[in-house]
Design a protein that fits this description.
single chain; alpha/beta; six-stranded parallel beta sheet; 31% helix; globular; binds nicotinamide-adenine-dinucleotide
Length: 461
């Protein structure tokens, strides 16, 4: 059997999941043929990892991307670079005859989104957007409960996502702190959450209204902690012994990925989380928000109320679905981590996670046994890897979790619309950003036409 040939662009923290999958877990069906990055140190680190796995993988500079494709003839390019650069690699890879697997968010603004959709149409290649969150067993169970019509058709959703002070603070240390890199947390991070809601509902958004602010990661908060000489980065800071947000880059994981290679590109992964918006250099500026609230109207009528904060004591989320027959409360807690620190990112904390069903007219709710799994992002990453790298040996997927450019677009467009709404104070229509966007393939859901059950004892005598 011939193996699928992969080239990977962007050899940073997240690339490890793909590199390990191709070089180790799925080495019988997959082969890594090239690495590419703007940072030669990280390319070399990835090459050494490949050697440790018994493979010799050539490395290429970012401006050699086309040459890399011509020389190494990959079937598929895995895009794992900064969000704002995804479009460039997605489009060029398809134009050069490759399929694409891209990390979320698919891209960061509506013009780039247009370009990706046009290039996909023109070239006929495939795009997979790695919405790993869908594959976490507790979230697949949520989808099953909703598909089973347990609480009827969904009228409203309340989704509160909590990034804790370890993981959440990281977005103010890294490239994500600049909206020009990440499209803001409403695109970079919330694309996962908006995609989950779109998929859970099997529906698409129409109208978006939002507010946001940076309220916590500010010089004022540093002053309240008693931190006086903070910044500009942890490595040079005089307050490290008393700062709860000190990021130590000297360890083998974070040091190996970032600190050892910062002399190549002057990218520092430990910028102070408290720096002001008008910092002296481009990278020391921070303009992303830590407190966000979004309201979304879906085509089918459901109304989503969403909030995201980046300074919670615990990591995870609570989501509630209010249906015509009852209510589903789903809470998932995950372990705390910093991206690239060598620990499992967001492992499921089972004892604090549940799906709880409250039928109308019942005195008590009940909790079906939680579907659980191990591995990154609530147990999602290993399940998704199987479907991507060894699809022929996976069971049929009743939840249609594999996502393409349509799901990639619908989810980012909520965040992009939200960002426009924050600026204008007005509601924004998704169709005004990208008209005629096709619906994704979603499983059928209760349509709200069936008669509703009434229990005799619930009627007043
Ligand atoms: N699905 C998930 O759960 C998940 C988790 C983490 C990250 N991600 C996504 O993965 C991607 C990478 O994130 P990360 O945490 O690895 O970031 P990172 O900073 O660790 O790595 C990014 C890499 O891209 C390289 N790069 C930057 N600009 C480039 C360019 N123009 N051309 C080529 N290479 C370039 C950098 O040198 C770096 O090696 C992001 O899109 C992020 O949203 C997804």
């Amino acid at each position: 059997m011939s193996k699928t040939r992969y080239a990977l662009v962007g050899t940073g923290g997240r690339s490890g999941m793909f590199r390990n999958a191709v070089l180790k877990t799925y080495k019988d069906t997959a082969e890594m043929v090239a690495y590419c990055d703007t940072n030669p140190g990280r390319v070399e680190r990835a090459r050494q990892h490949a050697r440790d796995c018994g493979a010799e993988v050539p490395g290429f500079a970012a401006d050699q991307f086309e040459e890399m494709i011509r020389q190494t003839r990959p079937d598929c390019v895995i895009v794992c670079t900064r969000d704002c650069t995804h479009d460039k690699y997605i489009c060029r890879a398809m134009e050069l005859g490759c399929d694409v697997i891209t990390e979320k968010p698919m891209t960061t603004d509506e013009d780039k989104c247009h370009r990706i959709l046009d290039t996909k149409r023109r070239t006929g290649r495939t795009i997979t957007v790695t919405f790993n969150y869908r594959y976490a067993p507790p979230r697949s169970q949520t989808k099953q409960i909703l598909m089973d019509n347990t609480i009827g058709n969904i009228l409203s959703v309340h989704f509160e996502y909590l990034l804790d002070t370890k993981h959440g603070a990281d977005y103010f240390r890294r490239w994500h702190r600049n909206k020009s890199n990440s499209g803001s947390l409403l695109v970079h991070k919330s694309t996962h959450h908006f995609d989950l809601v779109n998929w859970w509902l099997s529906d698409v958004p129409e109208l978006v209204w939002a507010q946001a602010d940076r309220q916590f990661y500010t010089p004022h908060t540093a002053a309240r902690y008693g931190l006086k000489g903070f910044g500009p980065r942890c490595a040079d800071c005089t307050e490290t012994s008393q700062c709860p947000y000190f990021m130590d880059l000297t360890g083998p994981h974070l040091g190996g990925i970032y600190r050892d290679h910062e002399h190549h590109d002057n990218y520092y992964r430990d910028w102070c989380v408290f720096l002001p918006e008008n910092g002296k250099t481009f990278d020391s500026r921070v303009d992303t928000d830590d407190t966000m609230s979004v309201s979304v109207r879906y085509r089918g009528g459901a109304i989503l109320t969403y909030s995201l904060i980046a300074y919670s004591p615990w990591e995870g989320y609570a989501v509630t679905f209010n249906g015509a027959k009852g209510r589903l409360e789903h809470v998932e807690r995950e372990t705390s981590y910093s991206s690239g620190d060598g620990t499992t990112p967001g492992a499921l904390v089972e004892e604090h996670s549940f799906n709880e069903i409250h039928p109308h007219f019942a005195d008590e709710g009940y909790r079906p046994k939680l579907w659980t799994g191990t591995g990154g992002h609530g147990g999602a990453d290993p399940v998704m890897q199987g479907y991507i790298f060894d699809p022929d040996n996976q069971p049929p997927d009743p939840y249609l979790r594999a996502a393409d450019q349509r799901s990639g677009a619908w989810s980012i467009l909520i965040g992009i619309a939200a960002s426009k709404s924050i600026l204008s104070g007005e509601a924004v229509r998704i169709a005004d950003l990208v008209p005629d966007l096709e619906d994704p393939d979603y499983p059928p859901m209760p349509d709200g036409t069936e008669p509703l059950p009434i229990q005799a004892e619930s009627i007043c005598p």
